[in-house]
Amino acid sequence: MRKKIVAGNWKMNLTYDEGQKLTSEIVNMYKDESIKDVIAVLNPPFPHLLPVKKLIGDTSGILLGAQNCSDKESGAFTGEVSAKILASFGASYVILGHSERREYFKESNDLLTAKVKQALANGLTPIFCCGESLEIRMAGTHEANVKFQLTESLFDLSPEDFSKVVIAYEPIWAIGTGKTATADQAQEMHLALRRHIASKYGKDIANATSILYGGSANPGNAKELFSKPDVDGGLIGGASLKSRDFIEIIKSF
Ligand code: PEP
C-alpha cells in the first residue's frame, strides 16, 4: 500500500499569527473530522517550523516539512539552512526541486542530487518535484523531459535510499495559474514515471513510491485527480492557505 499524502506548500506567505491560526484550524479539523489514512504535511517558511510543530503536537497523521534545504552539511554558508537543522526542529519532510527554485534560484539537477542526499542522510523524506514547462508540453516532449529530471537527480541513489523519496509531478504551466492538468494528463504522467522508476529500481519499489500531483489542485478537482490509480496525493500551494480548502482536499480521497 502506497502512502497517501497531501502536502501544503505555504511558499513565502503568512505572518506568525496567520500561520498559527491556519495551523490550529487544520489540526482541529483533521482531528474533529476523523481523517485517517491520509498524511497531511505542513510546509511553512522556516521561522514557522517550531511554532507550527508545537501546535501539531502529537496529532497522528500531521507532519512538518520545510520548503528547501542546503546541499551542504554545515558551516559558513550564510542564509542557508541544513537538513540536519531542519530535522532537529522536528521536520520530517522537505520539498526539493520546486519549479520556483529551479527557475528563480537556478537549482540544477546536480545540485538537487546533493540536497536529496543531505535530506536522506538526516532522516528527512524529500518531496522531489519535477514537471515540464508549457513550451515542452506543446512540443510533446514532456514525458522525456520529466523522466530526465528523475534520472539526473535521483537515479544515482541506492534502491534503499530511493525508496524513501516521494515524487511530486508539478506541470509548471499549472502552478498558481488556475489551470489544472486534467486527471487523465496527471495519470498518464504518473504512470510513465512509475514505469520509469520500475525500469531502474524494479516493480516493487516503483509500486511503493508515492507520486503526488501539484498544480492548481483545489476542493473542486481533487476528487477526480485522486481517483486515478497512480495519483497518490497532492502538493498544494494556494489552496493550502485556506484551512477548509486544505481539509476538503485531504477528504477527497
Ligand atoms: C505548488 O506551488 O507546489 C503548487 C502546486 O501551487 P498551486 O497549488 O498554487 O498551483
Walk me through the structure:
The chain has 253 residues and is an alpha/beta fold. The protein has 12 helices and 8 strands. It has an 8-stranded parallel barrel with strand order 1-2-3-4-5-6-7-8, surrounded by 6 helices. The structure holds phosphoenolpyruvate (PEP). Residues 9, 170, 175-176, 214-217, 235-239 line the site of phosphoenolpyruvate (PEP). Phosphoenolpyruvate binds at residues 9, 170, 175-176, 214-217, 235-239.
Bound compounds, each kind once, are: phosphoenolpyruvate
Estimated helix fraction: 40-55%
In whole angstroms, how far apart are the ends? 14 Å
Order of helices and strands: EHEHEHEHHEHHHEHHEHEH
* Strand order, sheet with most strands: 1-2-3-4-5-6-7-8
Give Rg in angstroms.
17 Å
Q: Tell me the β content.
A: 15-25%
Number of strands: 8
User: So how many helices?
Assistant: 12
Topology:
Layout: E1 4-9, H1 16-32, E2 38-43, H2 49-56, E3 62-66, H3 83-88, E4 93-96, H4 99-104, H5 109-121, E5 125-130, H6 134-139, H7 142-154, H8 159-162, E6 166-169, H9 183-201, H10 203-208, E7 211-214, H11 222-226, E8 233-236, H12 243-250
Parallel strand pairs: 1-2, 1-8, 2-3, 3-4, 4-5, 5-6, 6-7, 7-8
Helix pairs in contact: 1-2, 1-12, 5-7, 7-9
Can I get a quick summary?
The chain is an alpha/beta fold and 253 residues long. It has helices spanning 16-32, 49-56, 83-88, 99-104, 109-121, 134-139, 142-154, 159-162, 183-201, 203-208, 222-226, 243-250, and strands spanning 4-9, 38-43, 62-66, 93-96, 125-130, 166-169, 211-214, 233-236.
